[in-house]
Amino acid sequence: MKIDQIYTGCLAQGAYYIESKGEVAIIDPLRETQPYVSMAEKNKATIKYIFETHFHADFVSGHVDLARKTGATIVYGPGAKTEFDIHQATDGEIFELGDVKIKVLHTPGHTLESSTFLLIDEAGKEHAIFSGDTLFIGDVGRPDLAQKGDITQDDLAGMLYDSLRNKVMTLPDEVIVYPAHGAGSACGKNMSKETSDTLGNQKKNNYALRADMTREEFIKEVTDGLLPPPQYFAQNVAMNKSAETDGVDKILETGNVGLDVETFEAMANHEGALVLDTRNQQEFAKGFVPNSIFIGITGSFAPWVGALITDLQQPIVFLADEGREEEVVTRLSRVGYDNTLGYLKGGIEAWKAVGKEVDTITSVSADTFKTELEAGNANVLDVRKPGEYISEHIEKAKNTPLDFINDEMARIDKSTEYYIHCAGGYRSMIFASILKSRGYDKVIDVAGGFKAIKEAGIPVTDYVCPSTLD
Predict the structure, then answer these.
(1) Side-chain-side CA neighbours of residue 105 (13 Å)
(2) 385, 405 contact by CB (below 8 A)
(3) Could you tell me which of 107, 130, 128 has the C-alpha nearest to residue 117?
(4) Using one digit for the tens of pLDDT, what is the confidence trace for 18-44?
(5) Strand order from edge to edge, sheet including 2-8
(6) Fewest C-beta in 10 Å: which of 171, 216, 270, 448?
(7) How far apart are CA 137 and CA 232, in angstroms?
(8) Which of 132-141, 181-190, 227-236, 318-327 has the lowest mean pLDDT?
(9) 376 Cβ contact list (under 8 Å, min separation 6)
(10) What pLDDT band is residue 147 in, cutting at 50, 70 and 90?
(11) Which residues of 401-425 are buried (b: 16+ CB within 10 A; e: fewer)?
């Protein structure tokens, strides 16, 4: 038996490759399917099943494309309805894979069809669970994404409590937990950076698995402090139910195309394409195509694209560091942005070489920022999440989270100069670029973010541990 966790950091997502005696099951595949096909071919194995723990909201799955390429059967849990052929499993159903078995445990709560897959090894021992978004390391899945009709988030949270107590926590402590996500995903509140653990450790350390926890306490704790889900989540769910979703190969044919300056500019001016700059934030600040938006590829690129670009059909042209163009198109497609039209060949230097206008954003050090603060000349926008802000912040800074920038625009004065910071400098540059593109010229980025601010000795509020926040 062979188990490989294929972890994708920018999405904080874990897919799984399970092999026994030449037969393979893939669990929760990403949209780019060739890596799974190549792994099976290398091992002279055949992909027999594609198991989906639920309808994913934070990424577009590769299940349909992988099934087309391999003939594998797509398996969902009870109640799943799709536009393509699936095997809708029953609770307790067992699938043979070489010398091992995979048992379906229907665990509704995160979504109604959510299922946990129990791997039983060659000796008949319960070896591991692939828990999807039902159970994370340190957390459980948020119960607010599948509300519909008369079903509320409290109803779903109650279902999740029952699923965990009746289906998961009854398993042996030595069972390994392999979740669909880790820290950084918006599918939970308090996920660990670890990507697997034993169930026994989780029973001891995961707040949601406390032995003495009542159903009412669970519902309150799991639903407390939930931020609204990113806007693209519902659209990704729809794509994951559709038979028409393309594979990455087709998207690369139109998206991974070099454009000369004239064509690139025409795409932006006449096709309504958004200009997305994916370079390092400090390189972007020094010079960029006017009205372009910065979201750097070296960061939580895809989730921020999904949170901030509201239309999945939005045409996009982009700038990238040489050699990373295909990566940009692939990572856009992971969250459903398939209408990429190409990249600027030669990058910003090609743009400058033909005399095109270049815009800039002023970026200052924390020491310079400190001087302005002490002189009383700085209006400060802290664009971190509310929990980050509450735990520690500059006294007079206004919390304007990047996630909700569109809600904050009316409260930002175009005639006022603002110093903008986040935790490390990535989100603040995104925020500043969006303001710039909308005609807000008096924006100054604080390089290095809150980390640099504290190192510069700028006074901040007393620290409040996030775990104590209501």
Answers:
(1) 27
(2) no
(3) 130
(4) 999 999 999 999 999 999 999 999 999
(5) 2-8, 13-20, 23-27, 46-51, 73-76, 87-88
(6) 270
(7) 24
(8) 181-190
(9) none
(10) confident
(11) bbbbbeebeeebeeeeebbbbbbbb
As given in the structure block, the two tokens for residue 235 are 């659209």
Please say whether the beta carbons of 47 and 62 come within 8 A.
no
The three-state secondary structure class of 358 is: coil
Which stretches within 375-448 are classed as H helix?
386-391, 405-408, 426-437
Tokens 């096909």: give the residue.
37
Q: Mind spelling out the 3-state secondary structure of 202-246?
A: HHHHCHHHCCCCCHHHHHHHHHCCCCCCCCCHHHHHHHHHCCCCC
Residue 118 structure tokens: 């129990």
Token pair for 273: 């394409």
Sequence-distant (≥ 6) Cβ neighbours of residue 182 within 8 angstroms: 7, 12, 14, 136, 137, 191, 192, 193, 194, 195
Q: Taking a C-beta distance cutoff of 8 angstroms, is the pair 94, 102 a contact? A: yes
The first and second tokens of residue 399, run together, are 């919390």
Distance CA 135, CA 38 (A): 29
- Is the sign of the CA dihedral 388, 394, 398, 402 positive or negative? negative
38's enclosing H/E stretch is helix 34-42
Query: Are the C-beta atoms of 395 and 314 separated by less than 8 Å?
Result: no
Q: Is the dihedral of CA 340, 34, 6, 16 positive or negative?
A: positive
Q: How far apart are CA 397 and CA 225, in angstroms?
A: 22
Altogether, the residues listed in the chain come to a count of 470
Could you give the CA distance from residue 267 to residue 315 in angstroms, rounded to a whole number?
Answer: 9
pLDDT digits (tens, 9 = 90+) for 37-59: 999 999 999 999 999 999 999 99
